[in-house]
Write a structure and sequence with these properties.
Elements (H helix, E strand, L loop, with lengths): L2 E5 L3 H13 L2 E6 L2 H7 L5 E4 L5 H6 L7 E4 L5 H13 L5 E4 L3 H9 L4 E3 L1 H14 L3 E6 L4 E6 L10 H4 L1 H5 L1 E8 L6 E2 L11 E8 H11 L1
Parallel strand pairs: 1-2, 1-4, 2-3, 4-5, 5-6
Antiparallel strand pairs: 7-8, 8-11, 9-10, 9-11
Length: 219
């Protein structure tokens, strides 16, 4: 069972903590506001009223021993920076931080934060990609350069195999998983000889530029 700390009970932190708990993670939430802690404490393993920018608090809560620590305190730049600094100094293995600007993100990355999220921007990108490209079912940014995309196969793909299409060479993307609308097939990892059908959704990994080119080709 993953042990995850979520620091900051703004809307993003609250929904993240509840969802993680529902998925089976052991969730610890931390916030300075007792009222918001009262709202979430019944849904998580442990909820604490504390100031995460205090290094002693981080030690007392054993946050560096958690599998992941999520800093959802993007509105409080100084607190996020101090928390990230102390966590990495104390050996935290995986720190994710919410950021509100590119400058904020650069500072956090310089402190050793493992992953930066821009919740509103990332959701906007996913929605825009879904709305703009009729063959794009969903879009998940991984880094500044790479994303995972769900693609509805174009006509030129249907009835052919990845090896026949020279998929990776032609599109610059890797098929990770195929989701089938046929319950008998379900979701599976394809091999080079898997025949792509019009009941398949392809889960692709690729560079954002290559995915954009593929979207243009399959519209």
């Amino acid at each position: 069972m993953p042990q995850i700390a979520v620091v900051g009970m703004n809307s993003f932190g609250y929904h993240l903590a509840r969802t993680l708990a529902e998925l089976g993670s052991e969730v610890l939430v931390v916030d300075k506001d007792e009222a918001v802690i009262d709202e979430v404490k019944t849904y998580v393993a442990k909820a604490v009223v504390a100031d995460i920018s205090d290094k002693r608090v981080i030690q007392d809560l054993n946050l560096p021993e958690m599998d992941s620590v999520v800093l959802s305190v993007g509105n409080h730049f100084e607190a996020a920076v101090l928390a990230a600094l102390h966590l990495k100094d104390l050996g935290a293995r995986h720190v994710v931080a919410k950021a509100l600007s590119e400058d904020h993100a650069r500072v956090l990355l310089a402190l050793g934060v493992n992953r930066i999220v821009f919740p509103e921007r990332d959701m906007a990108l996913r929605l825009a990609s879904t709305l703009h490209g009729t063959n794009i079912a969903d879009y998940v940014p991984l880094t500044a350069d790479f994303s995972i995309t769900e693609l509805i196969p174009s006509k030129e793909m249907v009835g052919k195999t990845p090896i026949e299409l020279e998929f990776r060479k032609r599109y610059g993307c890797q098929i990770l998983v195929v989701k089938s609308l046929d319950p008998k097939e379900g979701t599976f990892i394809p091999d080079p000889t898997t025949v792509i059908t019009d009941r398949h959704i392809l889960i692709l990994l690729g560079k954002n530029d290559d995915l954009a080119k593929l979207r243009e080709k399959t519209q």
